[in-house]
Amino acid sequence: MTSEVRLRPVRDDDLPAFFANEQDPQANWMAAFGPKDPADRAAFDAHWARIRADPRIMPRTVTVDGEVVGHVAAFPVGEHTEVSYWIDPRRWGRGHATAALAALLRELPQRPVRARAAKDNAASLAVLRKCGFVVVGEDSGYAESRGAEVEEFVLELPA
């Protein structure tokens, strides 16, 4: 039996699963540019309240066979639309991130679309490349989860 990845609008009852997923230290290190304090539930709730209240942001819950396994989102950054995703680390390596990102991209009418990934996050870079993204630049920024400046690739899904 094949697992079925689906997207749906984020609901209040999805948030505890999202919060639990962000407690994994390895996931935070890999993502690099995550929350300052993943254990701060009030900051998490405020962050998701802002996301869900902004009509320019398209957040989606990722489910596999009906179970919440993460989220994907499209959001404006300057003149560009960027995408991001976070999948339960216990579900890594099963193609869920790739399937979820591909489904989100089918919902997005605009192109180009951008994404960012730490240069050493091979798994995330593989997901982006499988979905058609190509490296168009580089950047760096302070990553709270690593306590250091981190270099990243800027990728784009062309028109």
Structure described in brief:
By secondary structure, this protein is an alpha+beta fold.
Structural features, described:
This protein has 159 residues and is an alpha+beta fold. The chain has 5 helices and 7 strands, in the order E-H-H-H-E-E-E-H-E-H-E-E. The chain has helices at 15-21, 25-31, 41-53, 96-107, 122-130, and strands at residues 5-9, 58-64, 67-77, 80-87, 113-118, 134-143, 148-157. It has a 7-stranded mixed β-sheet with strand order 1-2-3-4-5-7-6, sandwiched between helices. The chain is globular and about 35 Å long. The mean pLDDT is 93.
List the helices and strands and how they pair.
Layout: E1 5-9, H1 15-21, H2 25-31, H3 41-53, E2 58-64, E3 67-77, E4 80-87, H4 96-107, E5 113-118, H5 122-130, E6 134-143, E7 148-157
Parallel strand pairs: 4-5
Antiparallel strand pairs: 1-2, 2-3, 3-4, 5-7, 6-7
* Main beta sheet: 7 strands, mixed
Q: What is the N-to-C order of secondary-structure elements (H for helix, E for strand)?
A: EHHHEEEHEHEE
Helix content: 25-40%
**Alpha carbon gyration radius:** 15 Å
In total, how many beta strands?
7
In percent, how much strand structure appears in the residues?
A: 35-45%
Please give the count of helices.
Answer: 5
User: Which residues sit in consecutive blocks of at least 5 with pLDDT less than 50?
Assistant: none
Oligomer: single chain
Shape: globular
The overall pLDDT, averaged over residues, is 93
What structural class do helix, strand and pairing data support? Answer: alpha+beta
How far apart are the first and last residues' alpha carbons, in Å? 35 Å
Order of adjacent strands in the largest pleated sheet = 1-2-3-4-5-7-6
